[in-house]
Amino acid sequence: MPDLKPELSGKSQYWISKHRYYELKHYCLQYPEWKKLRDSLDIKMEAMKLGNVYGTEPSDPTAKLAQMRVDLDRAIDRLLQISFEASEELGGFIFMAVTEGLSFTQLKTVYNIPCGKDMYYDAYRKFFWLLSQSKGI
To answer: Can you tell me the distance from the alpha carbon of 57 to that of 55, in angstroms, rounded to the nearest whole number?
Structure first.
């Protein structure tokens, strides 16, 4: 996990409360679960399509699966979009950090992130501030 203090000074332009930060951080860490669920929904939807070919009627469960797929895609896309909104140059690194719980040290040693700690954490904080804004209250 990043060694970022959970609460910034209230004077920071990207200030969010400690508890809001933890809420958003845990939201992001659900990404692998979303991907796994989305993949399993794809399999279920394919099976339902085959069932429809063989004469069964489309049903409400199909619509529910499709809506779940749309919701998961939106959540996944939102994280990716906001990562690059926080920093075009570091967006991929920010995305890995927030969805996999990687620290700056891991990004530097394993992935050779092309910046220093201050620049990285500024983009990291901006990501959470933007995510907080996008999710509303």
So the answer is: 6
Q: Which two tokens stand for residue 131?
A: 């995510």
Cβ atoms within 10 Å, residue 120? 22
Q: How many domains does the chain have?
A: 1
- Span 50-76, average pLDDT: 73
- The sign of the CA dihedral 136, 73, 4, 116 is negative
* pLDDT tens column, 11-32: 678 999 999 999 999 999 999 9
The encoded tokens of residue 110 equal 């394993």
Q: Is 42 contained in some domain?
A: yes
What is the three-class DSSP state of 10?
A: coil
